[in-house]
């Protein structure tokens, strides 16, 4: 007969309250994960544990917090083979499974016989980490040297706390927070390394942020610097445009999991310092290293006209020279990238 729903380890309520508090700390996912494992060890005496984040594009896991495993096991946990094993055994689901609960005998699981059992482990608990909107974010796992410690009561507690732990390590929490503080932000998305887009929790998206949009291609070409951040303008004539433009803000996701490339936000353009659409496009070419002659040739106009535009830009930006004007344009996003200068205003 299985454990009753209310069968929980001693001090479970206290530990649950602590985990809930830790899940909302203003810290990084790794720090929250470490603290949560410390809390859980008060009621689940494990010898090894890990919280791993899922990379759905590479189909493998990134170890966010991992303790008690030898190097061979740690290396295996980040492989596609282990990801496939998790899927086949059902360890990605929201109900915890012990080794004794798996759909096949432990003797038929190669990793258990070749890695975990030789390391001294005799039982374990695994459960998928799924956030409130249904996204799978990773895996929580424990291993013990005594089968008795992976008790039904422990499984109940793990199942109760799994959604809170998923929230604690959700890799989209920090990007969503950063997007919210972007000046004038009205919509945002996350761009993955494969070019897909993911919605940010609680934030709207926008047609300019769809995976097929030229804006996202321009955004990725402007990343890679120090800091990994860029802001620029795009011609557009619908909300939230002003003066025929919107502002695009993009910053890299330099963390875990690795498939998250950048956050891209769209918003009102803000103060354009009186720059016209033509001047913003010319500044885009200038900040990319074009000369006045090359700009004139690309636009099929006399170089004197470009020189005049650049001088008016310098004056409007209160800059002593073109270099200073370019630096201000890059810093404040007062330019249209050359690849966006001919975008269809739709």
Could you describe the 3D structure shown?
It is a single chain. The protein has two domains: 12-170, GAF domain (Beta-Lactamase, 2-Layer Sandwich), CATH 3.30.450.40; 174-340, Orthogonal Bundle (Arc Repressor Mutant, subunit A). The chain has twelve helices and ten strands. The chain has helices spanning 12-23, 29-40, 71-77, 80-89, 110-116, 152-169, 173-180, 214-221, 277-287, 292-299, 303-316, 322-332, and strands at residues 48-55, 60-67, 97-98, 123-130, 136-144, 185-192, 197-199, 229-235, 245-252, 260-267. A hairpin with a 5-residue loop joins strand 4 (123-130) and strand 5 (136-144). Helix 9 crosses helix 11 (303-316). The longest helix is centred in the middle third of the chain and has 18 residues, at 152-169. Keywords: Transcription, Transcription regulation. GO terms for molecular function: DNA binding. This is HTH luxR-type domain-containing protein.
Compact summary:
The protein contains twelve helices and ten strands.
Topology:
Blueprint: H1 12-23, H2 29-40, E1 48-55, E2 60-67, H3 71-77, H4 80-89, E3 97-98, H5 110-116, E4 123-130, E5 136-144, H6 152-169, H7 173-180, E6 185-192, E7 197-199, H8 214-221, E8 229-235, E9 245-252, E10 260-267, H9 277-287, H10 292-299, H11 303-316, H12 322-332
Antiparallel strand pairs: 1-2, 1-5, 3-4, 4-5, 6-7, 6-10, 8-9, 9-10
Helix pairs in contact: 1-2, 1-6, 9-11, 9-12, 10-11
């Amino acid at each position: 007969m299985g454990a009753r729903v209310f069968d929980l380890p001693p001090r479970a309520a206290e530990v649950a309250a602590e985990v809930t508090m830790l899940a909302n700390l203003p810290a990084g996912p790794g720090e929250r994960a470490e603290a949560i494992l410390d809390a859980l060890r008060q009621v689940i005496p494990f010898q090894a544990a890990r919280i791993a984040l899922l990379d759905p594009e590479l189909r493998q896991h990134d170890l966010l917090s991992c303790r008690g495993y030898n190097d061979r096991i740690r290396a295996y946990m980040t492989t596609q083979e282990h990801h496939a094993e998790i899927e086949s055994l059902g360890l990605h689901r929201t109900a915890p499974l012990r080794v004794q609960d798996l759909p096949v005998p432990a003797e038929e699981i190669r990793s258990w016989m070749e890695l975990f059992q030789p390391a001294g482990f005799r039982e374990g608990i695994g459960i998928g980490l799924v956030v409130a909107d249904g996204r799978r974010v990773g895996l929580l796992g424990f291993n013990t040297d005594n089968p008795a410690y992976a008790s039904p009561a422990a499984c109940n507690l793990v199942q109760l706390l799994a959604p809170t732990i998923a929230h604690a390590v959700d890799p989209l929490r920090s990007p969503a927070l950063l997007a919210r503080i972007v000046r004038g932000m009205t919509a945002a998305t996350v761009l993955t390394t494969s070019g897909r887009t993911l919605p940010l929790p609680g934030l709207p998206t926008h047609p300019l942020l769809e995976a097929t949009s030229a804006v996202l291609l321009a955004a990725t070409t402007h990343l890679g610097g120090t800091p990994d951040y860029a802001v620029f303008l795009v011609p557009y004539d619908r909300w939230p445009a002003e003066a025929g433009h919107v502002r695009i803000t993009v910053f890299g996701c330099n963390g875990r999991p690795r498939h998250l490339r950048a956050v891209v936000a769209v918003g009102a353009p803000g103060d354009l310092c009186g720059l016209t659409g033509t001047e913003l496009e010319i500044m885009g070419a200038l900040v990319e290293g074009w000369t006045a002659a090359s700009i004139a040739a690309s636009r099929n106009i006399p170089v004197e006209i470009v020189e005049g535009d650049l001088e008016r830009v310098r004056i409007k930006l209160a800059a002593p020279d073109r270099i200073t004007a370019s630096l201000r344009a890059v810093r404040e996003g007062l330019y249209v990238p050359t690849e966006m200068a001919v975008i269809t205003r739709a």
